[in-house]
Structures are given as C-alpha cells and as structure tokens.
Amino acid sequence: MSMSKNAWVSEVWNPVGDGIGWTPLFARAFNDWEIDLVERLLQKIQAFRVQREEEDRVIWTASKDGAFSVRSLYSMMELGGLSMFPSERIWRARVPPKVAFFAWEASWGKVLTQEQLQRRGFSLANRCFLCLSEEETVDHLLLHCIKTRVLWNLLFSLFGISWTLSGTVKTTLLGWNGGFMGKRRKKAWQMAPLCIFWSVWKERNRLAFGDEDLSLQRLNNLWFWVRGSLAESHSSLVSFVDWIGS
Ligand SMILES: [Zn+2]
C-alpha cells in the first residue's frame, strides 16, 4: 500500500511549515473495507512526533519539561492538537470511520475529482457535476459550489450563527472552532462539516455515475472488463487509473 516500502521515518515526516506531521503516501485510494485499518494506523502514528535535533529519548512534547501529565494531555486535546493539520477535528468527531476518512482524504486533496483525473493525464471537460459551470476541484465541490453553499447556509442558520468558510477543506476544518457552543450542541457542530462533505460527495457520485452517458461510468466498466480479461488486479478505480497511465 505504501508508495515506498523502504522509506525511513524522516522521509514520511514533514518537519516544517503548515503541513507539519506524518505524510504517508499511499499507492492508491482505499476500499471501504480497508478504511478502518488505515484509520487505526493513522491514529496510532499521530501520537508520535519526530524531533530531529535531539538524540533519541522518550519525551512528552505537550509539556515543557517533557514529562507526561494528564493536564497537558487535556489542554492539548482542547486546543485541537499541536499540528496544523486538522487531525483532531476529523478523528474526534463522532462520525462513522468512512466519513472521517473521506474528510481526511479531502484535507490532503486526495479525492478522485475530475481535476485529479486531469492531473493523471486524462483529457476531459472538467465541469462540476453539481453546478455544471465551474471546474471541479475538491475545494470547489465541498465548499464553494453554489449547490453546496445552500447546504452550508442551511447549517449555519440552523445553528443561528453567521460563519465564513475558508478557502480550503483543510483550513475550514482547522478553523472549525465550537468553543462558543454549549457542550451538547458542540458535538453536533463538530460532526456537521464532515457530514456535509460526505453527503455532497455521495450526491456527486450519484450524478457522476448514475448517468450512462458520462465518460467516468465507461471508465468504470473498462476497469471491470480489464480485471476480468487480463487478470490484472486493481482493487480500486484509482489504482487502475494509475496503471493505465504508467
Ligand atoms: Zn459546482
């Protein structure tokens, strides 16, 4: 599953800038039945951070003296984590794993949108399936599309607040602070963006694949036929797409 099987820890750890944290690269998108496993792996490694300057020793990075305390753990979780990746926002929300994992993929921009297909060398007219006017990128689809905006605005009026969405999925989740909500409403608030992402993606796929005339559906058929006739094992459409392009 990993892009490079013999990678050193330093190669999958980004020590600088906004993206500080683990940066595993996977060879393909995951199947539904693999998502639980991957989620558990990611939750495990997120607890560890790489300190390059110092000699190896066990320290707790959330407190100043390096010793563990429950208080430091609590304040770390309250702040939404130390990294600039919205891990806490994604994995602490009480949503099904596949919903959380989709948000995780979307935050990394690793969702098979038409833009991603174009980057892989496919020539297609990139049009958002929802609004049929803008180009389909993950941020357009999940945040800025006028059809998606209806859903966001409905959410904000349900909670009785006005809110400005950030430019990207990642920054939207990073800024998704529910501190001003009561304890019970906060849980719903934390789940809300992940639910919208998932609902929009499901609807997008229904529109994309429900119509026989769309080329993506044909691609899917091709994948099935190739699997049957060439004994090529591609467990997902994404790996098949990569294989064609290789
Ligand atoms: Zn759109």
Globular, elongated, flat, extended or rod-shaped: what is the shape?
Answer: globular
- Mean residue pLDDT: 79
Query: Which sequence of SSEs, written as H and E, runs from N to C?
Result: EEHHHHHHHHHHH
Helix content: 40-55%
Q: Tally the beta strands.
A: 2
List of distinct ligands in this structure: zinc ion
Low-confidence stretches: none
- Order of the strands making up the biggest sheet: 1-2
Structural class of the secondary elements?
mainly alpha
Q: Can you tell me the number of structural domains?
A: 1
- Total helices: the number is 11
Tell me the distance between the termini.
17 Å
Calculate Rg over CA atoms. Answer: 20 Å
Summarize the structure in words.
The protein has 246 residues and is mostly helical. It has one domain (9-214, 229-245). Helix content is 50%, strand content 2%. It is built from eleven helices and two strands. It has helices at 35-46, 70-78, 87-91, 97-107, 114-119, 138-144, 146-159, 169-174, 183-209, 215-230, 237-245; strands at residues 13-14, 21-22. A two-stranded antiparallel sheet has the order 1-2. Strand 1 (13-14) and strand 2 (21-22) form a beta hairpin. Helix 4 (97-107) packs across helix 9, helix 6 packs across helix 7 and helix 7 packs antiparallel against helix 9. The relative contact order is 0.11. The mean pLDDT is 79. Keywords: Membrane, Transmembrane, Transmembrane helix. This is Reverse transcriptase zinc-binding domain-containing protein. The chain crosses the membrane at residues 150-176. Residues 68-152 form the Reverse transcriptase zinc-binding domain. It comes from Vitis vinifera (Grape).
